[in-house]
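Reopening closed ticket. The problem is back. First fold of the pair:
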Amino acid sequence: MTMKKLLQQFVHDERGATAIEYGLIAAVLSLAIVGGVGRAANAIQWLFSDTNSQLVNAFAQH
């Protein structure tokens, strides 16, 4: 196999590029999921703390 043919095969081989693209997609999705879970946890925590404070106020009045 000549050097020119070997270099042409290397240039046309896209298997590594596809693996890198899949890795980048996985990384972006992971960041989106982690960020979404964090925001959802904060919203749920606020919801329960707000409900708890309303219950405390309701029981304190009676």
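Second fold of the pair, where the issue appears:
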Amino acid sequence: MRVVVIVMLLAIVASMGSAVYYLLSRKSQSSERLVRALTFRIGLSVCLFLLLMAGLYFHILPNQHL
């Protein structure tokens, strides 16, 4: 489970990096690619949140109280 979370976080950061690249790019299709990269990042973030909530619900992740 830890590996899946780390991979998803890296994919989110990579998507943000590509969005910054497309934002700074002056190509004609850069705005479409920017929107696609940000949409992909939002989708990954929502999936990661749901995955973490499911992991807590099904006791795959430990519920540690501070």
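Update: turned out to be a display glitch only; the data is intact. The chain has a mean pLDDT of 90. The two ends are 21 Å apart (CA to CA). Please close again.
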